[in-house]
Write a sequence for this structure.
């Protein structure tokens, strides 16, 4: 897949000297759903605002569809839809007019059929003549998405689309995102919910303290997240893993001085008790036991702690 958004060593220092982005490099693939996961203050909104050309970068480069977001702002912006974190809607405008007006802002000719399609897709058709002020919070969020889609962008940014919304609506949002992906829209969303990234993303980027700590396929990330290793130090080194232990995910390490056991922390049982029993039955004496967490897990533990604080 080709990159639709390319970010090279992006830095942002706000007036006053705070460095909100510390050299972010990232390629976003056409057609993917990328979740940027990070706690409050991580720099997610700053990153999105910079890609969308709303915030100026201090250094580094961003292109969208090959257009530099600073030098060729209009070209880049025409490809982008942005659903901002903060709600910003004119209360007395009718839904359909609000969405149609947004399209006009991009210099696109009026196209009622395109607007109606978007309204239907977001289940706003019945509300097309309602005034924004009459809508529930969830419906208002849909209007924001409809406005962001009004000029038929190729890339949609959703900044914390489900922060503070109820579970029902969150699921609806996820369905909307899946629909858009099926139409070929590239979607970047920020979230501080691990479950949200898990539910909808193809890839997950973890951002904290203005740095992108990792970007990885969701499936791979989730697999690693749920895994821990246990190092079993042996009294006497062994040449090979005994056949009796073939059913375990074991690896011989430290020149036969230790066995490394990988297990899933999200499974029903770790299998450790059974393994230790089978180990002594196989004639191996244990000297010590060490558990290791993947560094990824450390990252997440850190994130979750900060998120809770
Ligand atoms: N306009 C601004 N001026 C100065 N500092 C800012 C400004 N906007 C955001 N920040 C700071 O930059 C950091 C990242 O903010 P933000 O990008 O909003 O994070 P997130 O969206 O991940 O919560 C925070 O410490 C925030 O206080
Ligand atoms: Mg934010």
């Amino acid at each position: 897949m080709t990159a639709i958004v390319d970010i090279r060593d992006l830095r942002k220092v706000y007036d006053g000297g705070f460095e909100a982005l510390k050299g972010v490099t990232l390629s976003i693939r056409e057609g993917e759903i990328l979740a940027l996961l990070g706690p409050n203050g991580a720099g997610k909104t700053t990153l999105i605002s910079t890609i969308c050309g709303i915030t100026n970068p201090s250094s580094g480069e961003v292109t969208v569809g090959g257009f530099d977001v600073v030098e060729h702002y209009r070209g880049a912006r025409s490809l982008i839809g942005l659903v901002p974190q903060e709600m910003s809607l004119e209360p007395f405008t009718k839904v359909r007019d609000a969405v149609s007006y947004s399209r006009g802002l991009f210099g696109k000719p009026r196209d009622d059929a395109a607007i109606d399609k978007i309204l239907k897709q977001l289940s706003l058709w019945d509300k097309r003549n309602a005034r924004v002020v009459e809508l529930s919070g969830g419906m208002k969020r849909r209007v924001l998405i409809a406005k962001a889609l009004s000029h038929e962008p190729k890339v949609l940014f959703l900044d914390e689309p489900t922060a503070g919304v109820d579970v029902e609506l969150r699921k609806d949002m996820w369905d909307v995102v899946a629909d858009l992906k099926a139409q070929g829209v590239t979607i970047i969303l920020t979230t501080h919910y691990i479950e949200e990234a898990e539910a909808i993303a193809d890839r997950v980027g973890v951002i904290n303290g203005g740095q992108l700590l990792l970007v990885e396929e969701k499936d791979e990330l989730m697999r690693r997240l749920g895994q821990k290793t246990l190092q079993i130090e042996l009294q006497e080194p062994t040449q090979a893993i005994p056949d009796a232990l073939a059913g375990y995910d074991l690896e011989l390490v430290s020149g036969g001085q230790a066995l490394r056991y990988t297990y899933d922390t999200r499974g029903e049982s770790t299998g450790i008790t059974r393994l230790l029993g089978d180990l002594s039955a196989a004639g191996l004496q244990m000297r010590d036991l060490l558990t290791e967490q993947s560094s990824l897990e450390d990252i997440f533990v850190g994130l979750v702690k900060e998120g809770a604080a």
